[in-house]
């Protein structure tokens, strides 16, 4: 008969045999490994199984100690999403088609405000500035009511060949720094505009931010030049198909110019003036979602990089 070790090493499996004399396992419990006689036989299972041991026959002194039992690896049922997880998904879904808040209707804004209020009432981190490790990392802006950002969000309509790819905030709680970044993409290259700031904790929820410098990043070349077939300008759609040959002919020249620009170092400029300060109040925080409010009650909803909430 094959040894227990060899049976276990044929993982994954449905049933495993072991001697009732050498094991007293008669209950189910979550496991990451199975140990017999001190030997670690199965380590770091990729699936979250439970070990269930069943001893056949009657219990008592009359039981044959050599009788075999059955150990079953049982996959637990899928975990049901919690109420907070459902509310977060509903909030993120309500952002669809709003262009980070720019195009949100009054009804959609009211719905978003209601969902935010409900989430804030269930905030698992009531003192965010006392849990700075949760604030660490890169956060992607999903929605804002801050009108100061609206001209930036509408830049695609003003510059048809340039798109706003991402607005993000990166927090380093060890060095008390905040980096706000706006990433643009054009037909030949992408570039980022960044502000570097320092922050100070002022209360369990509030931080004071002092902007120090701005940086216009070095453009990063894209692989090829892409022109839209049509653009909209002053409410009129303009067909660019007749100009495609002409536009293609300038690709090499434009690419040469872009390469020259991309060899330049980033452009830095100072932001040290009397208006270079702001404050931010965090009203909801977990490892995936952050809701903050700034000057004038503006709302910012940000999602942690890598979170499944970023997946449509």
SSE layout:
Blueprint: H1 4-9, E1 15-19, E2 28-30, E3 34-36, E4 39-42, E5 50-54, E6 68-74, H2 83-93, H3 106-121, H4 132-135, E7 137-144, H5 150-153, H6 155-158, E8 163-172, E9 177-185, E10 189-201, E11 206-216, E12 220-221, E13 230-233, E14 236-239, H7 244-249, H8 251-262, E15 267-270, E16 277-285, E17 289-293, E18 299-304
Antiparallel strand pairs: 1-6, 2-5, 3-4, 5-6, 7-8, 7-18, 8-9, 9-10, 10-11, 10-12, 11-15, 11-16, 13-14, 16-17, 17-18
Verbal overview:
Helices cover 20% and strands 36% of the residues. With 312 residues, it is an alpha+beta fold. The protein has two domains: 4-74, no CATH class; 83-310, Beta Barrel (Lipocalin). The strands form four sheets. Strands 7-8-9-10-11-16-17-18 form an eight-stranded antiparallel barrel. The protein has a four-stranded antiparallel beta sheet with strand order 1-6-5-2. Strands 3-4 form a two-stranded antiparallel ribbon. The two termini are 52 Å apart. Mean pLDDT is 74; it is low at 1-47.
How many β-strands, per DSSP? 18
The DSSP helix count reads 8
**Share in β-strands:** 35-45%
Instruction: Trace the largest sheet across and list its strands.
Output: 7-8-9-10-11-16-17-18
Rg on CA atoms, Å:
29 Å
Largest sheet data: 8 strands, antiparallel, barrel
Work out the count of structural domains.
2
User: Distance between termini?
Assistant: 52 Å
Mean pLDDT across the residues is 74
Large-scale geometry: globular
Stretches with pLDDT under 50, minimum 5 residues: 1-47
Structural class: alpha+beta
> Secondary-structure element sequence?
HEEEEEEHHHEHHEEEEEEEHHEEEE
Protein name: Plastid lipid-associated protein/fibrillin conserved domain-containing protein
Organism: Fraxinus pennsylvanica
Main location: plastid
Keywords: Plastid, Transit peptide
């Amino acid at each position: 008969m094959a040894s227990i070790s060899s049976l276990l090493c044929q993982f994954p499996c449905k049933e495993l045999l072991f001697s009732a004399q050498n094991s007293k396992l008669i209950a189910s419990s979550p496991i990451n490994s199975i140990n017999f006689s001190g030997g670690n036989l199965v380590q770091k299972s990729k699936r979250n199984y439970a070990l269930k041991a069943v001893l056949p026959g009657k219990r008592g002194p009359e039981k044959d100690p050599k009788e075999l039992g059955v150990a079953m690896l049982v996959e637990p049922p899928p975990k049901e999403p919690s109420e907070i997880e459902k509310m977060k998904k509903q909030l993120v879904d309500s952002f669809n088609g709003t262009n980070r808040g720019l195009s949100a209707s009054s009804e959609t804004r009211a719905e978003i405000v209601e969902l935010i209020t409900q989430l804030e009432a269930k905030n698992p981190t009531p003192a965010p500035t006392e849990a700075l490790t949760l604030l660490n990392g890169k956060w992607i802006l999903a929605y804002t009511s801050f009108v100061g950002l609206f001209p930036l969000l509408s830049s695609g309509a003003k510059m048809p060949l340039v798109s706003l790819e991402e607005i993000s905030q990166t927090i380093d709680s060890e060095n008390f720094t905040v980096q706000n970044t706006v990433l643009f993409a054009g037909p030949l290259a992408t570039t980022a505009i960044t502000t570097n700031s320092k922050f100070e904790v002022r209360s369990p929820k509030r931080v004071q931010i002092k902007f120090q410098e701005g940086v216009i990043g070095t453009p990063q070349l894209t692989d090829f030049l892409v022109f839209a077939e049509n653009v909209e300008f002053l409410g009129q759609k303009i067909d660019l198909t007749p100009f495609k040959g002409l536009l293609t002919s300038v690709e090499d020249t434009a690419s040469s110019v872009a390469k020259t620009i991309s060899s330049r170092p980033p452009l830095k400029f100072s932001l040290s003036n009397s208006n270079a300060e702001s404050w931010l109040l965090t009203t909801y925080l977990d490892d995936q979602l952050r809701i903050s409010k700034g000057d004038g009650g503006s709302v910012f909803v940000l999602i942690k990089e890598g979170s499944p909430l970023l997946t449509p």
